[in-house]
Design goal:
Two copies of one chain form a homodimer.
Chain A (H helix, E strand, L loop, with lengths): L18 H19 L6 H8 L3 H7 L3 H27 L5 H18 L1 H9 L4 H30 L4 H24 L7 H17 L2
Helix pairs in contact in A: 1-2, 1-3, 1-4, 1-6, 2-3, 4-5, 4-7, 5-8, 5-9, 6-8, 7-8, 8-9
Chain A binds a DNA duplex through helix 3.
Chain lengths: 212, 212
DNA sequence: CCAGAATCCTACGCCGATGTAGGAAAAAGA
DNA sequence: TCTTTTTCCTACATCGGCGTAGGATTCTGG
């Protein structure tokens, strides 16, 4: 049984790829492990086993465990950022704020639903102290990006007063709402399509922000 | 230097308390460690050092590391539940939905600000697999509690249609909004009092839910 | 004041994960 | 085909955290 069932049984010798071609595979395996058992479970051994390879092969790709996880976080963060940019672009066509919220959430949820694993990483929360700094930095980047979009938009649409003071709080609220949308999308909600969910939540969150 | 500066220097022999009186101290120390360095850093050794005691003393209070953390989570969850109950009670006096949201958030944020450590635990996210189950169970309990309050309230106030389908999504949104409020309260917002923040966010979230 | 009980501390063995060295197998080149 | 190079695997040493045994110290009751 060379394929499928990965019991702890004897493994076939892995293909002769070399570090450069092996590296993306390692990150894929690391992502699998992180999604299934949390970032804390991403050990060199676990990743190697997931990939069907021994640990030294992983060490040939990354100097140590921390660099491996940082590489994973880098890659996934870029993927996420791309999706966010696409979602933001999709809102540009409309001058109606409510419609902007709705289409933004719709395209974002649709794209996010296509690579659930990457997004679950974001919801997982930080693991051991070694990664914490890098993880928080990623979150901070998103916060900044969100602020850079929400601030001008609210100024332009509604001339919200005292925006300087309110903005940090609103950004936090916005990001948390996005998390809620994501959870609803990835977990239970089989009876919601991305379009339905995006419209429902986009409208609700728009109401919260409009008269802030 | 028997007090203060906890370098790694020689320690004084700890007082003769015994497991029963020592146990709450151990949980206090564990909470400190969790807040400072994350739940993943709550090892028996770290807790013992934080408390100024050797590891066997901790083992005299709890059978193993998992039971210690579970005891911590139990205690903190009860504290949290008490606060939530108080906040919910405070909304009962008013029949105006918006006012209910506002006073609810206000009392909750005020009480939460008094024991920040306990609440930061909630934001920290799950650590290793051993605790994950217990941690998720706590979150599920809050979800259920929120659903039990939001559902009837929305039915009574606004006769929201198709509530069965919407409720799970709305509960998720509500909890995430609470997290946002908490983050704003505990982190940056020095220029927001609990009353101001509760009014601002309570109103915003009320708008999101009213016409859902 | 002294025996006995309760409590704390030192010291140990164990296990899982890390990171490394050197030999075996596969690919590449002559 | 035979040699050289690349890549993978087995085996090892190390480290940190877990959990326990037994001696040292402090409290307590007579």
């Amino acid at each position: 049984m060379p394929t499928s069932t990965r019991t702890t049984a004897e493994r076939v010798r892995a293909a002769h790829l070399g570090p450069d071609r092996r590296r993306p595979q390692v990150l894929d395996a690391a992502l699998q492990v992180a999604v299934k058992r949390g970032l804390g479970a991403v050990t060199v051994g676990a990743v190697a086993e997931e990939l069907g390879v021994t640990r030294p092969v992983v060490y040939a790709c990354f100097a140590d465990r921390v660099q491996m996880i940082e590489a994973l976080l880098d890659r996934e963060q870029h993927r996420l950022a791309d999706v966010v940019v696409q979602a933001l672009r999709s809102t540009g066509v409309s001058d109606d704020p409510e419609q902007a919220f709705v289409t933004g959430f719709q395209t974002w949820l649709r794209l996010a639903g296509e690579q659930p694993g990457t997004w679950r990483l974001l919801l997982a929360g930080q693991p051991d102290p070694a990664i914490r700094e890098r993880f928080d930095a990623g979150r901070a980047a998103f916060t900044q990006q969100a602020a850079a979009w929400i601030g001008p938009a609210m100024q332009r649409w509604w001339h919200t007063e005292d925006l300087d003071r309110k903005l940090p709080v609103l950004v936090e609220l916005f990001l948390s709402s996005c998390e809620a949308a994501l959870r609803s999308m990835l977990d239970g909600a089989d009876d919601w399509t991305p379009e339905e969910l995006g419209e429902f939540l986009g409208r609700a969150i728009h109401r919260a922000f409009r008269d802030a």
